[in-house]
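pinging the channel bc i need a second pair of eyes. not urgent but kinda urgent?? the chain im working w is below, pasted from the shared doc
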Amino acid sequence: MNNELSTFNSEKVTNKLRSILSEHKGMVLDESILSKIDVICGNIEAELKKEGIETAMLFKDAEQSKKLKNFEERRQQERRKNDNITDVIGIGLCLLDKDLEIIWTNKTICDWLDLKESPVGSCCHDIYHCSEVGTENCPAMNVFKGGSGRIIETWITTKEKKRMCVQHVATPITDERGDINNVLMLTIDATESEKIVHRLLLLQKLGEAMQGTLHLDKLLHLILTCVTSGYAFGFNRAMLFLINKEHDVLNGKLAVGPSSPEEANQIWQDISSKYTSLKDILDELDHSYNIDTPFNTMTKLMVFSLSDGREVVASCVREKKPIIVKDAANDPRVTEEFRNTLGANQFVCVPLITKDEPKGVIVADNIYTGEPITEDLVNTLTMFAGQAALAIENAETYKRLADKMNQLTETQHKLIRSEKLAIIGSMASYVAHEIRNPLVNIGGFAKSLSRFKFTDQKIKANIDIILDEVKRLEIILNNITDFSKPPIPEKINVQICEIMENTCTLMENYLQERYVNLYKEFEPDIPQILADPTQMKQVFLNILMNAVESMPNGGDLTVKITTVNKSIKIDIIDTGKGMTKESLKNIFEPFFTTKPHGTGVGMAVSLKIIEDHGGNINAESEWGKGTTMSLTLPTN
């Protein structure tokens, strides 16, 4: 009986196995095939035990035992092969049942989530720490309900203590009837994609900030702040050089960064406590962009010839591509002078390129933290440098346009003033001519009468009054004539200090009479200029006389002569009563005067003379404190 049952069941097992293998001939033994075989073997084994027959009796036949053993080995090989494949594809896999319990995972997800024990049998929430579990947003639950699983993106910390951005995607697993029995959760490493998105958003924000800034100094500070901010590129230090086309050199313009490790730690602590985002830092730049540090001062003194092939910054501009220096001490592209000045063994040079034309270069390093400078970081910095170059070009264009507008406005004001002076001068000349003839007659008759001896002293006094007023009118007419027809300056090489010295000498007695103390501060080695000495003396006399007359009770008068930006500056400072804002506004208007006996042409004539010499006059005054008249004249 036992032998018959054994034979029957042996044939039964063999037929079923042969049927399954034949059905899946040429195919990889996946989990569904293996599970069918397991079910068959399990059923037959249970049936035999129920009949009291040991499993081993089923396979007395040596050939059948050998086949089953080979089959088991193939089964184990396929299982290991499948496990190896799922472990090396770089994606975390987790199989869930309808109760969201884990029935299988691959090694990748266990490593990423730093699981110490097998998660099989646990709820998926226990390993994913997902807040959407049991809600309508749960991707696995949505899939079981026939919906489409949404993607969940989150950050995890791997067992190597690295931050990783991952995306969890739910995929349905159906049987032959199309029913969803399981859900496969795919966990994909999206860190690099997230970094790219972050960099693109960062570039967008920085680009918007730069394009909204047209003040060049502020823009340069903003650019280097972005390069050094931990919320952006995070370099320790950065320098910016711009091309000077006129001299074919690179000039250091600005540097941002600490000058020592102690200063670096202090700055980073202050920034972390004061600012919570890049926007906070950029907003602060609206209030301050002047940097007075040794590192910045050193950078502004640096000048490199673009034709010097030894300098790495010049090479970066010529080649129009970034240069990463990883060992400055042994890199032939880095000169000893630049290496010693910078002090960093690893740095990067990134060109500022716009419309295929170089504008300058950014140099950045991590001298204090020692963080490596990666290719990805340099690539992003290069894209940022392109935006920065465009912003710099816009700022420079705006500055040139603003300068031209200022020149145009100044020229227009001069033209209007010249036209006004011409009209007034023409009218003054006519009036002077018409008055001069009767005035001469009046003066002549008055002088004739003064020769007679009158017994009545009142008549003699009246004649003297007429003579004095005639003299005063003659002076006024002479001033008007000078104003209406200013002579063309006859310029020669003169020493302005000598002309001022001579003018002050002429006024010595007058100053003493008015109790005015004169102080002279002349810078040594003032260069000669082309000027008309007579007209210069006239200007100095006009301004000095006005200054003395503003101090009726005495005071201090200071004359300073210095050189400023290829110009000679003359400051005449008094401690008089000063001027009101209204008077200061009209000081150069013809015939405007605050003096009871003034003609109001002195300052107008003085301004005209200085402008004819290519210079300018600026007046600053405060009521009750005094006035400063500043004259600028170009050097030869």
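so Residues 60 and 109 are 44 Å apart (CA to CA). and The two ends are 132 Å apart (CA to CA). — does that match what u expected or am i reading it wrong
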